[in-house]
Amino acid sequence: MRYVIIRDDDTNALTPVDCLERLYRPFLDRGLPVNLAVIPDVATGTTMPDGKPEGFLLHKNGHGDCSLPIGSNAKLTNYLKSNSGYHVVQHGYRHDYLEFERISSSDAADRLDRGTRLLQDAGFSRPDTFVAPYDKLSRANMLEIAKRFRILSTGWFELGRIPYSWWPQYLMKKSLSRPHWRVGNTVLLSHPGCLLSYTRSYTGMLDTIIQNLNQSQVTVLVTHWWEYFRDHHPDEKFIATLHETASYLANRRDVKVVPFSELTSGNLPLN
What is the pLDDT of residues 22-60, one digit of tens each? Predict the structure, then answer.
């Protein structure tokens, strides 16, 4: 059996319910769990290095607050809680640019705890999974995350960034060519890039996904809800590709789509 974890990043207090419903109803109706990496207190002024606003702020509409907690959008939180196929995981705190790479470990500890409280205050269960904004983490902040979460999902791991005490496990993982590994009680997951992205060719996108899941028993499939609605217009071809992916995953008998939380049981392979 092969396992797929669907990870959609950047849901926040400004995310319209209609966007998530349009994208993921075919998954929910097929019983395919969707892990939403939720920003607990989104920074409304976050920009990329070129000065352009982050894509997940496309519905800001001149909102003046410097940050918005997820619980401020009752329509969104009620929608997520009423659909059991959604699984909320923690995505940074405010999602400032390179948030958990540049801040100190003491600041990171504070942001991690505050973010968890905001998710719980909004009515969600305490998250067991942390998703790193921009797939970037400092060595010290990895340790703070491992103290609090059972699962860390990021793009990749490299020797120069991981805590020194993790080096033996990391070198073992590398020697065995495994994408995922474990340190103590924390599962460390990598992913093969954002295979569902508007920056890739839609032609053959599903074939690339199939190729990657055939190479690993556990594949984290990453996408971003806002990429399907750039400039406030739905990208119909891209949405159709996402829904084609849902159909494929549902119909393939040797593939099971699971939430992150299923990995904490220890029953799934890490290779």
Answer: 999 999 999 999 999 999 999 998 888 888 888 888 877
Query: Tokens in use for 230?
Result: 């750039």
Q: What is the largest CA-CA distance in the chain?
A: 51
Closest CA to 189 of 262, 99, 102: 262
CA separation for the pair 85, 99 (Å, rounded): 29
Residues 6+ apart with CB under 8 A from 130: 89, 90, 91, 112, 145, 148, 149, 151, 152, 153
List, for residues 85-131, the tens digit of each pLDDT value. 999 999 999 999 899 999 999 999 999 999 999 999 999 999 999 99
Q: What span, in angstroms and rounded, lies between the C-alpha atoms of 205 and 31?
A: 23
Pairing of strands 2-11, 41-43: unpaired
CA 195/CA 212 separation, integer angstroms: 9
Residue recorded with tokens 């340190």: 183
Distance from C-alpha of 133 to C-alpha of 114, rounded to nearest angstrom: 16
How many Cβ atoms are within 10 Å of 239's Cβ, its own excluded?
15
CATH no. for 2-265: 3.20.20.370
Cα–Cα dist 53/6, whole Å: 25
pTM greater than 0.85 = yes
Report CA 32 to chain centroid distance, whole Å: 16
Amino acid at 193: G
Place of tokens 């990391």: 170
Among 259, 156, 240, residue whose Cα is nearest residue 198: 240
